[in-house]
Amino acid sequence: MIRQDGVRVKVPASTANLGPGFDTLGMALSLYFYIEMKPAESTVFHLHGQDMAGLPEDKSNLVYTVAQMVFAEAGVALPELEISMYSDIPLTRGLGSSASAIVGALFAANLLIGSPFDRGKLFDMATAIEHHPDNVGASLFGGLITAIWDGSHAEYLRIDPPADLDVLVAIPDFQLSTSKAREALPTQISLSDAVYNVSHVSLLTAAFVANRLDLISSAMRDRIHHPYRAALVPGLSRILEEAAEHGALGAALSGAGPTVLALVDRRRQKEGELESFLLGVLKEQGIAAKTIWLKPCTSGAMELTMEKDVSFLENIKGEF
Ligand SMILES: Nc1ncnc2c1ncn2[C@@H]1O[C@H](COP(=O)(O)OP(=O)(O)OP(=O)(O)O)[C@@H](O)[C@H]1O
Ligand SMILES: N[C@@H](CCO)C(=O)O
């Protein structure tokens, strides 16, 4: 059954790793990607918002190619689509823009053909495309997710983030692609660094489950990607070392960067101090940045109800 009127979907941004949980931990955040997908006579894109500028407007667009994977898997032919998108997730900054696009495309395409696949199957498909489950899992399920991936199937557990957790992100004024940030990583690590990360991510995950915000500062440390990526984001090492002195529970590179993320106990926030610290350290390195306060998002990808004969932008306007 093809839904001729089309579908609209909202997908949260995400932060991956949270320090030691490289390629395994992810958390959904309160920035959003919106997509409308309709059957059409010929394929056309409507890209709204400054963050969409420069994305391809033809069948090479990631959203189109991912939608076609869903149709192929379901044995449905739907080669022409009208796709409208709006996003307030900055591209290529470490806030999961590619994951939001992949999850949005999978979720919308599945709805469009009558939902033959459940979220578990969509998660496997999303992880196969993104190659790691952290961002796509958070965007698909919301909340905090921890996941494993065996190359064809992902197992995951979703938990609600601690209620008092706030998130401050400092988004530098430059892009850093995930592929470039992964090229900086070694192909092998020492046993002691592996033990360091396994112990830290275990404690961090348990601290989230047990609502032990006091443990986050020591548990959020990492030795398998931060040390190698620090040169790509000047100032990062100092931020990781000193953020706790300025009101953060802990800090990390968000995903592959360059965005830096600080977790904060909202009951203990000190007005302005952490923002000034993050922006000041980056500025000393000649990096312009902006800070945004975000919240963990507990909902994953969801369908938005449509008002007929109302445009895509009008329909989602109440959302932001
Ligand atoms: N809505 C979209 N439509 C098409 N392509 C997109 C869309 N959003 C993101 N992309 C693609 O994803 C790329 C960014 O992916 P990349 O993995 O490098 O960064 P990110 O997902 O923003 O950050 P991270 O994975 O570190 O959290 C963009 O350059 C673009 O090619
Ligand atoms: N876990 C991934 C997230 C970015 O997509 C990384 O750090 O490279």
Automatic annotation (TrEMBL):
This is Homoserine kinase. Pathway: Amino-acid biosynthesis; L-threonine biosynthesis; L-threonine from L-aspartate: step 4/5. Signal peptide: none annotated. It is found in: Cytoplasm. Its EC number is 2.7.1.39. ATP binds at residues 90-100. Residues 61-143 form the GHMP kinase N-terminal domain. It comes from the Bacteria. The gene is thrB. HAMAP family: Homoser_kinase. It comes from Paenibacillus puldeungensis. One of its GO terms (molecular function) is homoserine kinase activity. Keywords: Amino-acid biosynthesis, ATP-binding, Cytoplasm, Kinase, Nucleotide-binding, Threonine biosynthesis, Transferase. It catalyses: L-homoserine + ATP = O-phospho-L-homoserine + ADP + H(+). Belongs to the GHMP kinase family. Homoserine kinase subfamily. Its main location: cytoplasm.
